Amino acid sequence: MASSSSSFTMLLSAPNPSLSPSSSRTTLSTLRTTFLPTLSSSPSPSPFSPTAITRRRGKSLLVSAAAAGALQALIFDCDGVILESEHLHRQAYNDAFSHFNVRCSSSATEPLNWGLEFYDELQNRIGGGKPKMRWYFGEYGWPTSRIFETPPDNKEDREKLVDIIQDWKTERYKEIIKSGTGKKLAICSAATKSSVVLCLENLIGIERFQGLDCFLAGDDVKEKKPNPSIYLTAAKKLGVSGGDCLVVEDSVIGLQAATGAGMPCIITYTCSTANQDFKEAIAKFPDLSDVRMCTGCTADSQIHKFALCVI
Fold it and tell me: Which residues form a coiled coil (predicted)?
């Protein structure tokens, strides 16, 4: 992963590699789901009752199935559900348009660039990258580009244009996802390593877990939180200073460990820590669903110093 002067140290939060260097914003929200199955050895239809409790934005959704066979599988979409990635797709499209110098008007002074609000509307109206481009070029005119110096005027050339742009965009999107755009990511937990590893491998997957820049558990340091040693060790492993890190914690003990290491800290409190004294934190939230990473806005707040804003 590319080096950076900034680093994020997160406590038991699924890493989000979708960090964009452009004006697009990245969500830090975590979708927490706990399954509470009730099992019975009886083969009759009644015993299996899986229950899912999903917490997001401070709300709870209870889903249950009382009869066997009523719920046999859970199927998730990816973009926008598991990964808040639409802004990364937009970035990849705009990079492709710039790469091929795509211009839909002879008077255009810059390559095509899909703005945030426009793309939000576009992606909710038309699914798939190629259909998006076909619709847009059909509405606003087929473009000149490095692929075709003059706008393509037949179906074969138009499909070739769309195919080439889409293929380049797809590879660019993969690069953005893999790179994390330079922000290092670490997880520091006071819990026993074996239990944290099991949790993370199941929560975020083995590949993402192995892709962390640093992972430390309680076994890796002599002193537990609120002693700052785990965060000091993480900073050393990451090759950054404490002031260039941002810690996300949920308790005052974790906050004390972070600030003791000279690291600013954001709190996402739980029901059991909500009433603790977090005055040393730079911000406090029930969750991070409304917190975004950004580089293009001009908000004036303490967390904005760390390229974060609240929507």
Answer: none
Q: Strand 51-56 to strand 59-64: parallel, antiparallel, or no bridges (unpaired)?
A: antiparallel
- Residue 9: name the closest of 197, 195, 178, 262 by CA: 262
As beta bridge partners, residue 10 has 187, 248
- Interval 255-266: pLDDT, tens: 999 999 999 999
Dihedral pair phi/psi, residue 266, rounded to 5°: -105, 140
256 in Cβ contact with 281 (< 8 Å): no
Distances (CA, A) of 39 to 67, 89, 95, 234: 11, 42, 51, 42
Question: What is the spatial distance between Cα 297 and Cα 305, in angstroms, rounded to a whole number?
Answer: 11
Asked if 22 and 91 count as a contact pair (C-beta separation under 8 A), the reply is yes
pLDDT tens digits, 146-194: 999 999 999 999 999 999 999 999 999 988 877 655 678 899 998 888 9
CA 151 to chain centre: 37
The two tokens of residue 305 are 């110093």
The residue type found at 28 is L
The set of catalytic residues is 77, 79
Determine if the peptide bond prior to 226 is cis (ω within 30°).
yes
